[in-house]
Amino acid sequence: MSAARRHRALLIGNWTYDDRDGRLVGLDGPKHDVAVLREALTDPDFGLFDDDRVQVVTNCTSGEMAAEVYRFIKQAERDDDLLLYFSGHGERVAGGRLGLCGTDVQYSDFIATCFNSHSIREWLDEFGRARSTVIVFDCCFAGQFKSADVVETELLFRSLGEGTAVLSSSGNEPSRDSSVPGQPSPFTGALSRILCDPTLVGSDGALTVDHVFDALVSERLPTRPVKNIRDTGDLALARRRPIESTTETRSLRGWSEHVTFRTVEIAVRDGRIEAEVEGEHFPREFTEFDDTRRNAVRRLSQLADAVVQTSGYNGDTARQRAARRALECAGQNLFEAALPEAVRDRIATMLVGGDHRVLRLRLVFDEESCGLEQYPWEFLARGSGRDDPLGLRSEILVQRVRTSSLPVPDLPAADGPSRIGIVNGLAPPFDRAGFRLAEELKPLASAELVFQDVGVRATWNNLIDHCEDDEPHYLVLYLPVARLDRNEVRIGFSWGSGEPDWRSPGELARVLRGGTRGVAVVSVASPPGQDCFRATTQFVHALAGYTSAPIFFVCHQPGFEEFINDLPAGRPATFWGLLLDALTHGKDVERSFWYARDKVLRRISDRLRPFFGVPGLYWRGHEPGPTTAPRRAAAGTRGRVADPPSPGLHWTTS
């Protein structure tokens, strides 16, 4: 396997069908199939695929599927090795061929409306420039992928020529969907395990199609898997040799260095929005954000807080969805009224670009921003009513910046693992997230969990002592946040019993050490906080005036904690675990944030997605070196300080 080879994959999963005849029912497996297969293909120890070279398309129509497959084949280069995968409904069509069902197919006319897989052969014959192509089908009648002149005694496929292989979950028979909620289909589950099975040594540093097929047959699956009956050559599906990279890179599942950023900077000054795109200034592209629109956005944010507050600890699904809709409506208002037309056009282009580049939407707030920083900018949406907020789109990174005169210190080289402290002061069951993060950090060689204060120990005085004694590089606060009045916001520590001990952003800033590399604020829109959505962004905005360290934040809704129950044990899988895993291995802040967010969004279920919130980043953009870490404070610099520093002064212990 030459280093010049480029492995690219297109994974298609369809599970939502709207068949009036009731024959093409919804499926459980495909939504998990594409996730587990992607994990296997990009596995740091066994995967051949960079994360940004695996494209996942879900719940697409037959026409959309055909277009994606056509582009995938036609755009291939001579050094590419392609993997094309489909999981969903399959049916037999004219000529004994396989039809792949898009979400719009009606069973009564599927022959005319499904995607005829014979087109794949035609496109490979006409455009196929890739060095090799592997096609994998996990669907009913997958063995029908053949030419019309192939007789049934040949069992399955006609070989598509040298350098092409076909694997399928079955022959001329139905395949099994997942029988366990939350689990992949039997065939794809087995395939994903085999690709990452260290006991399968393969040959010449690779696990080939033949190796994988032999292992699949031994799995005793509900239907017998099949492959080309002719020899296809040694086409690799997984790696079986030591990775020539650092330990840090191996431990980050799915990390890719190929993602690049393009910047659109939005300056918010006195209620006006001014844009600069990669050095190109738009002096005429101002949009006046008038009082009427601003009041509408503010009231929608208030509504989101209000409906969740009335739901209590147990949560109310209808109210929570109403809160999400209110925030998304506010985001649509922000998008249309606040962003210049040129920026809206650039965002629309990026969302369909598919070129492995991420649009960094950098929102800069100064002291004259008239409270606009409190608005839900992470929920910016194009107004279609169907797209995720931009803060949850892979192609967009929303970053907040508060202008400040704080100098950014140069930190010396690392002398050991990064020290991490956790304050877990949320009430059950929301405290599950903090417990899970602690478990994820323990096996990491790059991180040292120096303290974890839970419940009654999550006090303000304990935090002061820990920051003085342990000097954590990263501080993660699972705490309630509240707006006590319009301009006063606090974060709540434990008194040991009774009401929270509310503390201001300035008070928190003064206990941070000079070597602080990052602070995470994790809250939940539930009592004892008030106006939690707005309070969280208002708190971190104020905190950003006191520190040059990056601040990560999110306000979940009740129900998000169920996400923890579905996660695999033994490795980071939460947003905060993935983020800290990347940061403590010296990865830069923006890539680490983007990496952690996208890994979680690929894993979280559609049911829990509305309650998860939108992670946010407040940071001025200074990058320390990839292997740097703070040194211990010099002697005599510890101790409580009477007053917090002003936003214009750098608070340091060095």
Structure explained in plain terms:
The protein is α/β, with parallel strands linked by helices and 654 residues long. The chain folds into three domains: 6-244, Rossmann fold (3-Layer(aba) Sandwich), CATH 3.40.50.1460; 260-402; 418-618, Rossmann fold (3-Layer(aba) Sandwich), CATH 3.40.50. The chain is built from 18 helices and 26 strands. The strands form six sheets. The protein has a six-stranded mixed beta sheet with strand order 2-1-3-7-8-10, with helices on both faces. Strands 12, 13, 14, 15, 16 and 17 form a six-stranded mixed beta sheet that branches. Strand 18 (418-424), helix 11 and strand 19 (447-454) form a beta-alpha-beta unit. Helix 8 packs antiparallel against helix 9 and helix 13 (505-511) packs across helix 14. It is globular, with a radius of gyration of 26 Å.
